[in-house]
Design a protein that fits this description.
The complex is a heterodimer of chains A (about 325) and B (about 350). By secondary structure, chain A is an all-alpha fold. Chain A contains seven helices and no strands. In chain A, helix 1 runs antiparallel to helix 2, helix 1 packs antiparallel against helix 7 and helix 4 packs antiparallel against helix 7. Chain A starts with a helix and ends with a helix. The longest helix of chain B is centred in the last third of the chain and has 46 residues. Chain B is elongated, with a radius of gyration of 34 Å. Classes of the chains: A mainly alpha (about 325), B mainly alpha (about 350). Chain B: It is a multi-pass membrane protein. Chain B: Belongs to the PRPH2/ROM1 family.
């Protein structure tokens, strides 16, 4: 019977259209998630841009925001087309746009692939920026009266408290810089004068760390000053006293935070690529069904016409 | 009829659709309130060591119960909506709806009234360095940017350095211990967690009252070096802020719940009216109350009195018989006994009603 193949395909086509519509809306939601992740990443970079010398690259978050917005738009359009596909009258106006739309989808997938690659590769840039920025941050810690750097102390203290780290590589970085401002040093004091003269650059160096390096989990009240001097504190051996201050460097802590963020975003983009490819293949199948249906309906109408003609000739 | 409106079939369908959407919105709000209750409870449990935990847990408990009740009632409302336009499935909800209205009204009431609570937060401690974990207090002070109970001087009155780290052979330590009756090592120093990172100066922890111990330091004017707030004030502000910010959210939930209540009542009356007509797709009327407010109230009161009378009819008739001498019951006497019974029950019902009213107020 000529009707059977078309009917079977119609039911399948309805299911296909419904499934495709659901997938489109899922992709829109994923697009929204990518957009908000891009914004979140941008805000996190901005929050700590002081520690990166205001030099960090905003390429990845900007790209994520763009890709998220594009994903929403493209998939919403696809969902609308899908919704209208079961109504032949409405669908005819979308039909000429299908081919360019599929091409746009393909190029969007390429863009997604590029974004995923960047998510994984830009981590090196972040690492280098962090290393440089933290070194300068520790150097400028004391400059709370210099405009442009007056919040460096606060930022660095809050970072050390939040990320549970001390210094760039470890706490000894603080021994190499002067982190107490000259305003609070009594230059007439002998001890201060000794320390200042003990090095070439005239810096007041000491074996102490700021309070933000202290570990609250330590059972002992925090020992900040004279860290390498065992006799300065009761029952203290600086080689075995581990828990008193944070031992990790801030570069490692910050880098692991940012890299985990970028890795999860890259993974999400790869999932989005797979989703888009699935949607694309289903869209192609649907398009094929449509051209088949239009052809078969034409065939059916033409066969009906020839049988009618035969009938009339027979009667005649 | 109270506030009656005409409903065409089209309008009924639209009302059912709108109500279905709104009830699902109300379910989401119920989920939100439940999660808010859980969040508040975990926040309070995290600080359990420094919280006086007798009364505070009332608020998150109420929020969780209200959230669950809201989810349940609004889910039922959406099911009723789905069945309302199908004449065969709607009648089964008929008996259930009265109970639903009572529960939903109770829910609104609890939301409006039950969330105002005065709460006492921070427990007074006299030995924070010993009774509670050092880490908890340190983290508390760093997170809430506070120092001590009321201010940093509270640390001067306790020994917050453990004896394990004190060198008892040192003269300074021995002097300090002997300087007070309890033999505690008191000093004018504070833990590092009191330090304020915003201060431009590296943190001064020890010898705080001694101006000459530090360069360019004056104890009375050095403000930013430490956190100036006490932890009690900081915690109170934090939790009050949390409660205040939930206020508008809860208000909007109340509005949604009330509109679901009103719409469902209209839908119920309109659909029931339509089903009673010959042509179910004709226009029908929807209303809030079948009679006016006063008459409905009288009806409800009569029903309640009937129920009470049925519950306690036997002992009183026995009592009546013993009180009065045995007489032949003339019609006038039965009439008087009825009037007497009615009069007897009225004050009791009145006191019951007044008690309910006062509690609800």
């Amino acid at each position: 019977m000529p009707f059977m193949p078309v009917k079977f395909n119609l039911q399948k086509r309805v299911k296909l259209a419904q499934g495709l519509w659901m997938l489109y809306w899922l992709s829109v939601i994923v697009g929204i998630v990518i957009f908000s992740l891009g914004i979140f990443f941008k805000i996190e970079l901005r929050k700590r841009s002081e520690l990166m010398d205001n030099n960090e690259s905003h390429l990845v978050p900007n790209l994520l925001i763009l890709v998220g917005a594009l994903a929403c738009a493209i998939n919403a359009f696809g969902g609308k087309v899908c919704h209208d596909s079961l109504d032949p009258m409405k669908f005819t106006k979308w039909k000429p746009m299908l081919k360019p739309y599929l091409l746009t989808c393909c190029s969007f997938n390429v863009l997604l692939l590029l974004t995923a690659l960047l998510c994984f590769l830009m981590q090196f840039a972040v690492y280098l920026t962090l290393a440089e920025g933290l070194k300068n941050g520790i150097k400028f810690y004391k400059d709370t009266d210099t405009p442009g750097r007056c919040f460096m102390k606060r930022t660095l203290d809050m970072t050390q408290i939040e990320f549970r780290c001390c210094g760039n590589n470890n706490y000894r970085d603080w021994f190499e810089v002067q982190w107490i401002s000259n305003r609070y040093l009594d230059m007439s004091n002998d001890e201060v004068k000794d320390r200042v003269f003990s090095n070439v650059e005239g810096k007041f160096l000491m074996d102490s760390v700021p309070f933000s390096c202290c570990n609250p989990g330590s059972p002992r009240p925090c020992i900040q000053h004279h860290l390498t001097n065992n006799s300065a504190h009761y029952d203290y051996d600086h080689r075995t006293e581990e828990l008193n201050i944070w031992t990790h460097g801030c570069r490692e802590a910050l880098f692991s935070y940012y890299s985990s963020m970028m890795n999860s975003m890259g993974a999400l983009i790869i999932i989005t690529i797979l989703l888009e490819l699935e949607v694309l293949s289903l869209e192609r199948t649907q398009e094929k069904f449509f051209s088949f249906k239009s052809r078969s309906s034409q065939q059916h109408s033409s066969s009906k016409l020839t049988s009618e003609l035969k009938h009339t000739t027979l009667i005649a | 009829m109270l506030l009656k409106m005409k409903f065409t079939q089209q309008r009924r369908v639209r009302l059912a659709q709108g109500l279905w959407l709104m009830s699902w919105l109300a379910v989401m709000c119920g989920v939100f309130i439940f999660c808010l209750g859980i969040y508040l409870k975990t926040e309070l449990l995290r600080r359990a060591e420094v919280m006086d935990d007798t009364e505070i847990h009332v608020v998150p408990n109420i929020l969780m119960m209200v959230g669950l009740a809201s989810i349940g009632t609004n889910w039922v409302a959406s099911r009723v909506c789905q069945d309302s336009l199908d004449a065969s499935r709607f009648p089964r909800w008929k008996g259930f709806l009265l109970a639903w209205f009572v529960v939903a009204a109770l829910l609104c009431y609890v939301l409006i009234v039950g969330l105002r609570n005065g709460i006492r937060f921070y427990k007074d401690t006299d030995v924070p360095g010993r009774c509670f974990q050092k880490e908890t207090i340190d983290r508390l002070q760093m997170e809430f940017r506070c120092c001590g109970n009321n201010n940093f001087r509270d640390w001067f009155e306790v020994q917050w350095v453990s004896n394990r780290y004190l060198d008892f052979t040192s003269k300074d330590v021995k002097d300090r211990i002997r300087s007070n009756v309890d033999g505690r090592y008191l000093l004018d120093g504070i833990p590092f967690s009191c330090c304020n990172p915003v201060s431009p100066r590296p943190c001064l922890q020890y010898h705080l009252t001694d101006n000459s111990a530090h360069y360019n330091y004056e104890f009375q004017s050095e403000e930013l070096n430490l956190h100036s707030r006490g932890c009690r004030q900081a915690l109170t502000d934090y939790y009050m802020g949390l409660m205040n910010s939930t206020g508008p959210g809860v208000l909007s939930v109340i509005l949604i719940q009330m509109s679901v209540l009103v719409s469902l009542r209209y839908l119920q009356t309109a659909v029931e009216g339509a089903m009673a007509l010959e042509n179910p797709e004709d226009d029908s009327e929807g209303y809030l109350l079948e009679k006016g407010v006063k008459e409905t109230f009288e009806d409800v009161k009569a029903n309640v009195l009937n129920i009470l009378k049925f519950a306690q009819v036997d002992p009183t008739t026995d009592e009546e018989n013993t009180l009065r001498p045995r007489q032949k019951h003339t019609p006038s006497q039965t009439e008087t006994t009825h009037r007497y019974n009615r009069w007897k029950w009225f004050p009791r019902a009145k006191t019951v009603f007044l008690k309910c009213f006062l509690i609800c107020k």
